[in-house]
Amino acid sequence: MSEAKQNASDARRLVVVSNRLGNIRDMSQAGGLAVGVADALAQRGGLWLGASDEYYDSAAGDEPLIRVERLGKIEMAALALPREEYSLYYNGYANSTLWPLFHYRLDLVKHQREFLQAYRQINARFAKALAGLLSGNNDLIWIHDYHLIPLAAELRRLGVGNRIGFFLHISFPPPDLFVATPDHEELIDDLLQYDVVGLQTETDLANFRRSVETTNSISFDIKGATEAKGRAVLSRSFPIGIDVDSFARMANDAAEDVQIDSMRRQILGLKQIIGVDRLDYSKGLPGRMQAFARLLERHPEHERAATYLQIASPTREEVSAYAEIRSQLEATAGSINGKYADLAWTPIRYIHRAVPRSRLAGLLRASQVGLVAPLRDGMNLVAKEYIAAQDPGDPGVLVLSRFAGAAEELAESLIVNPYAVDEVADAIAKALKMPLEERTARHGALLKRISRNDAAEWRRSFLATLAGEG
Length: 470
Ligand code: GDG
What we know:
The chain has helices at about 5-10, 30-45, 85-100, 115-135, 150-155, 175-180, 185-190, 200-215, 245-250, 255-270, 285-300, 320-340, 355-365, 380-390, 420-435, 435-450, 455-465, and strands at about 15-20, 45-55, 65-70, 75-80, 140-145, 165, 195-200, 225-230, 230-235, 270-280, 305-315, 350, 370, 395-400, 415. It is α/β, with parallel strands linked by helices. It folds into two domains: about 5-240 and about 455-465, Glycogen Phosphorylase B (Rossmann fold), CATH 3.40.50; about 245-450, Glycogen Phosphorylase B (Rossmann fold), CATH 3.40.50.
């Protein structure tokens, strides 16, 4: 894109909406969406609207309760919401209906009329709050993720004619699964109220377009454009990336105790396999532990020579499916350790806590294998963080699920089917034995790609497209 065009889109105020606000004051703990969005706002200024972590209990009238705080060029607007309604929207429709549906888990989808009602009400509240904060129809509005699909439709109802873009951070299911939700027509109509619909991968993009075709008999042209009810809609893929340099720096400056742990393992000749995830059923965590156990069975030379560290940070604990996956994972780790551990060796170290980001970076660098084996994932930033964290002179090897969006870009990793436990076990064995020359060649290619498609490129290309310049 030319400088002139870059400047043209930068001149418009950026307005970002996501379910939660990032902590702009301390980005040291943030990943993904928060970093990508915060950097865009830090560069050009603008407004970020998200739900407040303060709720109100009883009806407080219809006027939105917003607290706006200015931090340099950025205005942070926190919207207070009714507690009960927020829970039905967040734990209910967003995370018990849409999340499993979009991760191909029809067996876990819960349909309740109150969920959908609250989802629509909360989106209408966001719309009303946002409409009052807009400075005119030149503001570029960028809405994030599955919590807020109906937001453009609600804004249009209030007469907002601005350019509005939507980015879906999670995968989009194939039409046969998508139409299984009774609300699929409404959801597609909502998505067609955006000017730009952004998906993570080519697979998601194809699934989205086919779902629109199936539901509304509207097809997209070769450039991803269509017209729906007289409005032009563009759909494209914008694979999200990370800030490679800053993550690499963090990994290099690892905390002393991480370095000591790593030296201790070096002395003992112990290699480390690492997994880092929110404790979510989409991440395939029990399967990874089983694959590690199969590694020990099929390749017994790794007994007492390899250890698996899984950090599984707590998430959405009020949703029942998350309590189930937690007990399943604890049982799996316990039974594998019970079978193999001895006084000198704990095969699996499982940490059910959030770990500070800088420490995480150091742990990724200190691990010879990055095991990223979700059953379905929009992108998976940990895969990219693992690559960024490595020592280019002696890098570890990424074992990556073909069902992570990242697999479309990261072909030089060892791509596996996470449902085929023996295949994953053999890939880990291959990674543990891979000669330095092959490791550096694979890592070099991967590093180049994640550096080219980084967080800055993701937001630049999305915003240029939204501004009509892409
Ligand atoms: C959604 C989509 C898509 C994890 N544990 C800790 C911690 N993390 C950080 C990781 C990474 C981020 O959280 C997780 O990002 P992922 O991409 O892996 O997965 P989701 O949370 O499911 O994110 C996903 C993403 O949105 C972005 O579009 O890639 O597909 O599902 O940055 O490092 N960070 C800290 N402590 C932890 O314990 N500090």
